[in-house]
């Protein structure tokens, strides 16, 4: 099981930005497709974004396309989710996980505690 840890959540005003980080030790994350998920109170878990483990198109849900950017820093063994133009609807606990394949129906291999993002005035 590839275990990862999320960080970077917090409280931000609408229109603001946050950068979430997803790190793992001792697994080399560049070998894996890494997906981000979120779950808002009372709602089902949503696949947000995913970066493949090999050169391929990064996946973004329609709800975040154009506002969120996913990237890797292999030297730091970290995947980043840059979230801009945040909206109250982005409020959720965000999780990252290794996945078999990127896409709307991707399934996390293992979920950690997540990091909470709250978008509010």
Account of the protein in words:
- This protein is an all-beta fold and 121 residues long.
- The chain has a six-stranded mixed beta sheet with strand order 2-10-9-4-5-6, with no helix packed on it. Strands 1-3-8-7 form a four-stranded antiparallel beta sheet, with no helix packed on it.
- Helix content is 0%, strand content 43%.
- The protein is globular.
- The protein starts with a strand and ends with a strand.
- The mean pLDDT is 94.
- It has strands at 5-7, 10-12, 18-23, 33-39, 46-51, 59-60, 68-73, 78-83, 92-99, 115-119.
- The chain has no helices and ten strands.
What order do the helices and strands come in, and which of them pair?
Elements: E1 5-7, E2 10-12, E3 18-23, E4 33-39, E5 46-51, E6 59-60, E7 68-73, E8 78-83, E9 92-99, E10 115-119
Parallel strand pairs: 2-10
Antiparallel strand pairs: 1-3, 3-8, 4-5, 4-9, 5-6, 7-8, 9-10
């Amino acid at each position: 099981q590839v275990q990862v840890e999320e960080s970077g959540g917090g409280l931000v005003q609408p229109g603001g930005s946050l950068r979430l980080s997803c790190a793992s030790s001792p697994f080399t994350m560049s070998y894996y497709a890494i997906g981000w998920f979120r779950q808002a109170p009372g709602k089902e878990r949503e696949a947000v974004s995913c970066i493949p483990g090999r050169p391929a198109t990064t996946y973004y849900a329609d709800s975040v396309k154009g506002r969120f950017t996913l990237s890797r820093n292999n030297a730091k063994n970290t995947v980043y989710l840059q979230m801009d133009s945040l909206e109250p609807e982005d409020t959720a606990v965000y999780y990252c996980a290794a996945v078999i394949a990127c896409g709307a129906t991707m399934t996390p291999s293992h979920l950690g505690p997540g990091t909470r993002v709250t978008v509010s005035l």
